[in-house]
Every structure is written in structure tokens, then in C-alpha cells.
Amino acid sequence: MKPASFRYVAASDVADAVALLTEHGDTAKLLAGGQSLVPMMNLRLSRPGVLIDLNRMPQRNTIAVEDGLLRVGLLVRQKEAEHSPIVLAQIPLLAEAIAEIGHAQIRSRGTLVGSCCHADPAAETPAVLLALDGSVRVQGPQGAREIAASDFFLGYFQTALAPDEVATDLLFPIPAQGTGSAFLEFARRHGDFALVAVAALVHLDAEGAVQGAALSLAGVGPSPLRATGAEQFLIGRRAEPAVLLEAARIAAQGIEPTDDVQASAAYRTQLAQTLVERALLIAASRAAREVA
Ligand SMILES: Cc1cc2nc3c(=O)[nH]c(=O)nc-3n(C[C@H](O)[C@H](O)[C@H](O)COP(=O)(O)OP(=O)(O)OC[C@H]3O[C@@H](n4cnc5c(N)ncnc54)[C@H](O)[C@@H]3O)c2cc1C
Predict the structure, then answer these.
(1) Domain range holding 45?
(2) Contact, 134 vs 170, CB < 8 A?
(3) β-pair partners for 72
């Protein structure tokens, strides 16, 4: 399969990419790792007239901690973040999630920012960004702005990015001390997109009661979603197996997946409950080790 013909132009920096987007309008597409866009072009599901390559920009592959946030620049490859000592130390949940993305070859090109802009409902990185109440920093002709993850993912492959904006960074708040986390998913084959994926964070106080919890699920709707009912239920309770099971039941009751060729809605709902329960058990035991 070959793509329809297009014009190629390399952006020298973010301002240049914004100017090129403004100039070429709807016909233009940004190219990051190309691991979603190029297959879509080859299948002719996407036919950009102009491809604006972001890969030549200097200094956009930074992973840094700034003001309690982990900042991931637009050219950080999934594989770089997966093995980054900063990510492993500050947000192991993110490294654990990235390890589930496709195959090593894909992760060596694909970017975290590109994954969020692509907004596949089963993708791992958006689920983690949402669980952590993170945000996306974007730049357009009017300047820079930050969009909370809860406002960024609008539906199947839809985001709040304007057509002339470039996403420059992902901002992940670093969890407080005493927080344990876990990322679990189930896919039909190794490397496939998840049928259901779960990101869980549990913050315990010194007495072992849940002080805070965050649960986000991917693959169960048009975009990742937070299981807020289950999160609220957990607050103030001890993280015991029966409590975590009840939280998982509440989370599963709160989703409305649809039947598709991969799985029925009932199967996805049951899978979500099982994965939430297991993820909470792991996150709670990791949190308990932190506070011990
Ligand atoms: C076989 C296979 C298996 C895969 N499995 C998984 C999986 O299990 N989980 C998963 O999450 N992903 C999976 N992927 C997708 C992979 O993670 C992609 O890398 C990712 O979705 C897109 O990142 P990218 O950098 O390759 O972006 P690209 O493909 O270059 O771009 C994707 C989209 O985002 C836009 N975009 C990119 N960067 C920016 C930016 N800075 N600002 C604004 N718009 C931008 C592009 O214009 C395009 O519309 C798989 C891919 C393949 C080929």
C-alpha cells in the first residue's frame, strides 16, 4: 500500500510548524513518529496534501521535572520515556503503561505527544495522563495554552486541539509520597491495542486508609474515562480486598462499552471489573510498602 501523493516540508521549530499549519490549513498534517499517521496514509484513510515533519526540531526531546510536574516534550519517543530514570523514579505508572504499547520497534519511533494527539480510545498514554490529572501544552498563532486531559480527549480520535495548534508538551503531576500505582491491560495478542486498560493510583495515609484514589479506563468508550464513583467510594476506607472488589464493581457499573468485532459489551464490562480489582490490589500493596 502506498499513500496518495503529498508535499513534504520539515518544520525548523514549533513557531515554524504553527506558521505552516496556518498557511496550509486543513490540507496539512503534522508528522511525529508516524506510527499511526503513516499506516493511515498508506491505507488512504488520511490524505494530507502537505506533511509537516516535526522530527528535525532541536531541543524538543526533553524529559524534565518542573514545579512538581513531569514534562515530556513533543519528540520524546515512547521507548525513551519507558527507560528514562526520571520517569521510572517519579512516575513508574507511565513506564509500566508505555511497555504495553505495540512492539519495541513502534515504541522506538512513536511519541507520547503523538499518541495523545491521535487519541485512540484504547491508547495507554492518554489513560495515564487522565488518571494523573495531567494536561497538554499547546502552541498556536495566538500563543501557548494548557488543556487539561479531562478537556483534551473529546471522543474517537478527537481532541480539543485547534487545526492550527501544535502540542508541545505533556505535563504529568508527580504523585505524592505514599502513592502506589499499577497499569494493567488485556489484549488478544501481544502488541495489540488493549481490549480494556486500567491505570490505578492509591494514596494511603499512615494508618493504611485510602486518602486519594484515581482510576482511569481505556477501551471502554470513545475516550479514556475516570471511574469517579469508585474513586469516591474508596476514600477513607481501608484498602482491603473486599473494599477493592466493591470499588471495581462500581467502576464496571459506570461504563457503557459497545459491542464490536473484538469483544461484546458484556465481556468488556466483566474484563474492566477484573482489571480494576487487580490493579487496585497491586497499587494498594505498593502504596503500603511506601508508607511502611
Ligand atoms: C502495529 C501497531 C501497534 C500499535 N499498538 C499501540 C498500542 O498498543 N497502544 C498505543 O497507544 N499505540 C499503539 N500504536 C500507535 C503508536 O503508539 C503511535 O506511535 C502513536 O499512536 C502516535 O504517535 P506518533 O508519534 O507515531 O504520531 P504520528 O503517527 O506521527 O501522528 C499521529 C497523529 O497525531 C498528530 N500529531 C502528532 N504529533 C503532534 C503534535 N505535536 N501536535 C499536534 N498533532 C500531532 C498527527 O498529525 C497525526 O494526526 C501502534 C501502532 C502500530 C503501527
Answers:
(1) 7-53
(2) yes
(3) 63, 170
Q: Is residue 2 part of a domain?
A: no
**Gyration radius of the chain's alpha carbons:** 19
Name every protein residue with a CB atom under 6 angstroms from any ligand 1 atom. 29-37, 39, 54, 74, 101-102, 106, 110-111, 113-115, 117-118, 120, 123-124, 161, 166-167, 191, 193
Angle of helix 241-253 versus helix 265-291 axis, rounded to 10: 140
Q: What is the pTM of this model?
A: 0.97
* CA distances (Å), origin 288, targets 134, 181, 205, 208, 213: 24, 11, 9, 7, 14
CA–CA dist 277, 5 (Å, integer): 49
Entry field: residues in the chain: 292
- Residue where the block lists cell 502506589: 180
Closest CA relative to residue 247, chosen from 221, 218, 214, 223: 214
Residue pLDDT, tens place only, 170-206: 999 999 999 999 999 999 998 899 999 999 999 999 8
| Residue % of the chain over a pLDDT of 90 | 95
Pocket test for ligand 1, best of 13, 53, 94, 106 (most atoms within 8 A of CB): 106
Q: What is the CATH number for 48?
A: 3.30.43.10
Final residue of a structural domain among 127, 146, 173: 173
Are 137 and 210 members of one domain?
no
Going by alpha carbons, the residue nearest to atom 53 of ligand 1 is: 35
Kindly state the greatest CA–CA separation across the chain.
63
The answer to whether 216 and 226 have CB atoms below 8 angstroms apart is: yes
Cα–Cα distance between 49 and 220 in angstroms, integer? Answer: 33
Task: Flag whether 1 is in a domain.
Answer: no
Q: For 22-72, write each residue's pLDDT tens digit.
A: 999 889 999 999 999 999 999 999 999 999 999 999 889 999 999 999 999
